[in-house]
Amino acid sequence: MFKLPKKKIIGITGTMGSGKSQVGKILSEKYSVLDCDKVNAELLLPNRKGFEELKERKLIKIDEDGYLDKKQLSFDMFQDKMIKKEVENILHPLIFQEMNAWIENQKDGLVFIEMPLLFEIGAQDHFDSIWCVVTKRNIALERLTKYRHIDTQEAMKRITKQMSEEKKASLSDVVIYNNGTLKELKQTIAQMVEREKSWS
């Protein structure tokens, strides 16, 4: 398990369609933000350690251009718990390694890490504060169908299979309600940042 340097590390989590990425994007205008989904995607590029280990264990399908078939891997992990566990056991330690190296290179007193499965993988003890982004179910479904091009039925399946929004919120230090306008979200984030600074 990785050891965090002495900075205030804030984790950002939430369910699908809650707007975690939007919160991260707003924060990145002034602060250092790491998106663990992007780290994961980079580890799955050809010749990267994650890709090579999964390939060696025959857990992934490769397309004709030599890249990972992401859609197939997502389907396999959703359908088979054993495959999901094996893939995560390979990728999660690598993500933590990348994350720790990134944190050590940051100069800001506050750094933010987007981690959708923060609670599911038991990473909460490694953060000084955890923000949970929540939104109404109908808004989340609309975002997933519009921006992620996932049909409503599939989006609902994925949301309900995750840890509930209520559970994540109850385990978090800060809950950000993302049901309004972008301006309102920015105002809320600014308030929460100031609060974190006062808690330092």
Automatic annotation (TrEMBL):
CDD domains from the UniProt entry: DPCK (cd02022)
InterPro entries: Depp_CoAkinase, P-loop_NTPase
Molecular function, one GO term: dephospho-CoA kinase activity
Ranges that cross the membrane: none
Binding site for ATP: 17-22
Biological process terms in GO annotation: coenzyme A biosynthetic process
Localization per Swiss-Prot or TrEMBL: Cytoplasm
Family annotation (Gene3D superfamilies): P-loop containing nucleotide triphosphate hydrolases
Family annotation (Pfam families): CoaE
GO cellular component, one term: cytoplasm
Enzymatic reactions: 3'-dephospho-CoA + ATP = ADP + CoA + H(+)
Listed pathway(s): Cofactor biosynthesis; coenzyme A biosynthesis; CoA from (R)-pantothenate: step 5/5
The EC number(s) this enzyme carries: 2.7.1.24
Known role: Catalyzes the phosphorylation of the 3'-hydroxyl group of dephosphocoenzyme A to form coenzyme A.
HAMAP family in the record: Dephospho_CoA_kinase
UniProt protein name: Dephospho-CoA kinase
Source organism phylogeny: Bacteria, Bacillati, Bacillota, Erysipelotrichia, Erysipelotrichales
